[in-house]
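Researcher: Next sequence.
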Amino acid sequence: MGGNVFETVKQSITTREAAEHYGIEVKRNGMACCPFHDDRTPSLKLDRRFHCFGCGADGDVIDFAARLYNLSPKEAAEKLAQDFGLLYDSQAPPKKTYVRQRSEAQKFRESKQRCFRALADYAHLLRGWETGLAPLTPDAEPHPLFVEALHQKDYVEYLLDFLMEDGIEEQKTWIAEHLTKIMDLERRNKEMAEKPTNRERLREITEGIEQNIKELFESEKYMRYLSVMSRFHRYSVNNTMLI
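Model: Next structure:
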């Protein structure tokens, strides 16, 4: 398609198509979480144009791409033409690399989601340790992970509730102070999730033994043994002595 790049893009691409192309999840009704502010519930309406009922962002597809990638209108139009393979002025659009600019609200939301996910995974491990590694008798030495679960579970659940609340400034402060520890926790979660507990190893061994026994008694060799033994009379001990 030839012509002015602005006209070509506006006639060929809707804002909804652009949003979906750039990784924004759009619901059937055309609503999505706005990438221009900390949007928890979808408030961005996408069709040929876009409008956010939360922050008031509004415009056409070029305005959308310009805000999303912090570009000038011309750069945004050229990027859209390039990404959707549109031709304008009888020439292919120039090949450029664009980096999407994340707002501070987006950065905070991503950090918050990362912290919540790490804590939720840790809470899942703690619950498993509390139930799966509990001492079998009152006198048994408690497993270190069971002790850790008792000490940490309530605090981790408190932090999860804290991240679900609306105290954004307090959350920002906490995340900034603890992000390094969260990264360490992510690594530990991964290591512990891949490491079987003693009971899991015991269960695996038991299941292996049961499977081997089952295979033994279902084997052809054992069937032949039963067939041979069935040909002989079976006598009690007393009868054997009399014979």
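Model: The first strand starts at residue 31 and ends at 32. The first helix runs from residue 5 to 12.
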